Fold this sequence. Notes:
19 strands
Amino acid sequence: MTSLNQLYQICGQDNVIDNPQLTNPYTTDWRKRYHGSAVAVVFPRAQSQIQELVKFCQVQQIAIIPQGGNTSTCGAATPLSDYNKPQLIVNLQKMNKIISLDRDNYSLTVEAGCTLQQVQDYASVHGLYFPLSLASQGSCQIGGNLATNAGGVQVLKYGMIRDLTLGLRAVLANGEVLDGLTALRKDNTYLDLKQLLIGSEGTLGIITHATLKLFPIPPAYCTLMFPVSSIAQALQLLQQLKTYYTNNVSAFEIIKHDSWQIYQNYFDFKHEICNAPWSIICEIEVNNDFVLENLLILLEQNEIDLNQSVIASSENERQLLWQLREQIPLAEKQYGYAAKHDISLPLSQIEEFVTINSAKLKEIEPHGYFSIFGHLGDGNLHYNFGLVGADSQQISELEQLVNPLVYQDVIARGGSISAEHGIGQSKKKWLQQFCDPVSYQLMQQLKQQLDPLNLLNPGKIFNSPNTNR
Ligand code: FAD
């Protein structure tokens, strides 16, 4: 039995909960598909407490589940339901201090428990810009963003969080601290070890601090939503936009009309554009009044129906457009369970993949519905196939049929089965099946080297030896 007293001693009694009613939100994932068990949830307030926790868990053979905002969509932050060791959730929400802003260096150092929104707001109040932007930004934490290498809607211009990170600090499975909290943009002294932690989903270390890149606030935006008849038409336009506006095209999102139908069950947005086969939300960072005029001419030349388009004419309207996009996953969640795929493909393959693969899925389940949306500019689609009214078990059965078909086609076209959400519990099996075997073996060796007792987030990404979980 885990002695709560020892956890109290390390973190303080106010920072430990073990009552199942209180721990339930932390032991269940965002989609409510995974329900794990944990002896307690602890909320450390300092890196030194995390080090002590790790050392304590090492001795007691307790598995540690690092947790941020618990917005993972693949069960990455949820303890296992039937693990053969006790599990302790270490949630970083109380390590949420902004450490320092270096204005001249365009960098910000924060504790890992800061929410993404907090970081964006802090940068903005100081006249600077942190471009990572996700619908979950009010809850997700920088540590979670790093551990999942989060993407979002501004990747086209700014990259994923890997590209936005100068340095980080993490507590390793042996309690030692990997101190790479540099603010340098150039440093070839070491192997770039922070890259190992970024995207490792809490399996290699607990990230406690990060130094992030900031940018000047874009002088203005041109943001609009317009209909397209096909993915091919959208991509042809994207190519032209990139030619005209180069790196200023910062977002290019796509939404299938079926997703709007789901959306309209829960949110109030009635507009002709919802009937078009696809809608695009595009944002260009500009500081010149002629851009919108030129852009509209370009759209007309491409036979886009401007009457069906929505142009943001103020910052408020721009926020409303983004809100529409961000609420789509929330509407989907309320609509019910679905077989969800966070895939990426070379842009040249997307149209054909969607046409051919969606026909295959319909053949398997003629009553299935699609909801397809995502970051088209990055080649990343949320390609979801559901059954109205299905429960979690029925969706698991559907996934057994659908997932091999989706992932085989994705891989055959040079794509990825996990573009930005990670592997967690839900894609572990598919990773093993589709990952390059040499890369997979190397990953296992790294895990073994850094966490020989398999204490950190067992059963995520990797199978746990002995239990096959
Ligand atoms: P958690 O869910 O708590 O944890 C995720 C993983 O990170 C787990 O493996 C956990 O163990 C690990 N972890 C957490 N904190 C730490 C830490 N300090 N040290 C080490 N490991 C840690 N993702 C995108 O990339 N792009 C999107 O556009 C996007 N949109 C989303 C929209 C919605 C509505 C939702 C619910 C999710 C979305 N996500 C998106 C997924 C999710 O928000 C991201 O993966 C996010 O980065 C997770 O952060 P978190 O703090 O919630 O982490």
